[in-house]
Design brief:
Helix content is 87%, strand content 0%. It is mostly helical and 110 residues long. It starts with a helix and ends with a helix.
C-alpha cells in the first residue's frame, strides 16, 4: 500500500498535464482510507505487542527447578535411616526381653 502511494506521488510530481494530475490526486484521495486504516491497524498491533511484552517482563517469575535425582536420593537415605533406627529399636527390645527372661530364670533357681 505504501509503495503504491509513493509511486502515485512520484507520478503526480512528474506529470505535466493538469487534468492527469487531478486524476492522480483523486486516486490518492481514494486510497487514503485504506492507508489510514493500515496505519491505524499497524499502530494498534505494535501498541498491543509492546503492552504484552511489558506484561511478560513485569509478571515474569523466576524459574524454580527441582533436582529430582538429589531429592529422591535424600528420600532414600531418610527411609534407610528410619529402617536402621527401627531395626536397632527391635533388636534392643528383643535383647531386653532376653535379658528379662534370663533375670527371671535366675530368680527362680536362686
Amino acid at each position: 500500500m505504501e509503495l503504491a502511494e509513493k509511486l502515485m506521488w512520484d507520478n503526480y510530481h512528474l506529470e505535466e498535464d493538469p487534468s492527469k494530475k487531478v486524476k492522480i490526486l483523486e486516486s490518492l484521495i481514494g486510497i487514503q482510507p485504506y492507508v489510514s486504516g493500515y496505519y491505524d491497524s499497524t499502530r494498534y498491533v505494535l501498541e498491543e505487542a509492546v503492552k504484552a511484552d511489558e506484561d511478560l517482563h513485569r509478571n515474569k517469575r523466576p524459574y524454580v527447578g527441582i533436582d529430582v535425582e538429589a531429592r529422591r536420593k535424600k528420600e532414600f537415605e531418610e527411609e534407610a535411616e528410619e529402617r536402621r533406627f527401627k531395626m536397632i529399636k527391635e533388636r534392643q527390645a528383643a535383647a531386653e526381653v532376653v535379658y528379662n527372661n534370663d533375670l527371671q530364670g535366675l530368680q527362680i533357681t536362686a
